[in-house]
Specification:
It contains eight helices and eight strands, in the order αααββαβββαααβββα. It is of the alpha+beta class and 249 residues long. The protein has two domains: 61 residues, Arc Repressor Mutant, subunit A, CATH 1.10.10; 177 residues, GAF domain (Beta-Lactamase, 2-Layer Sandwich), CATH 3.30.450.40. The chain has a six-stranded antiparallel β-sheet with strand order 5-4-3-8-7-6, sandwiched between helices. A two-stranded antiparallel ribbon has the order 1-2. Strand 7 and strand 8 form a beta hairpin. Helix 2 packs across helix 3 and helix 4 packs antiparallel against helix 8. The protein is elongated, with a radius of gyration of 23 Å. GO terms for molecular function: DNA binding; DNA-binding transcription factor activity.
Length: 249
Amino acid sequence: MLKTLDNALHLLRYFTRERPQWGVRELAREMNISHPVVYRMLATFERHGFLRQDEQTKKYELGITFLEYGAILRDHLSITQIIYPVMKRLAETTGESVILTWLDGMEGICLEMAESTQRVKYAMSVGSRTLLYAGASNKVIMAYLPPHVQEAIIAKGLKPKTDRTILDKDELLRDLARIRSEGWAYSVGEYTENVFGIAVPLFAYDKRVVASLTIAGPDYRMPADAVPAALRALKEAQQEIQTLLQRIQ
């Protein structure tokens, strides 16, 4: 299995600027692999959009999927560079850590983080993945997903991260509906013990939810009467970031 995967990935490296198209037989000769094996690999890549076959020449070339992945990578790299200064200012204003969580399939992924300067703080690793049904940063994304996607996430199983994680489907759906109605989410200890989160959604140009912006820290530093001020600062940052996103999308 690993040998097959290695050969398949090696095959893609033959598609270069200098040689963007290959026929089945000529690529088989170049790789010194049998024609049927090369054909199966090419057909599989074509089926998933990584390659396409020219209708006239019958040769293969890179497909639209690579363009999509390239755009995602380019956008994410530029997005973090553009958004981070806003996150840093918000972290300084609130004294808490600020997290940018990006939607990736049916999970969240920490794309960037501006840490609190306080001695006791909440931190998570950039690149770490999170479940969309637990914690403010995740649920504020899930709340804006289509119902069938919400159902698919729930169908995979609701597993507790802490004893405050909502595991009842109906209760979770009601919570998501409330979050969507109010436009922000607040949680304490749902994903990590003794950690609060206040989160707002971020949207693409076509109004699809793509990420969330979250203030997070030790729960003892965010009593109920401090939430409104933190939320105001968070929403100001949200508006600034949405303006930036509109300019680069």
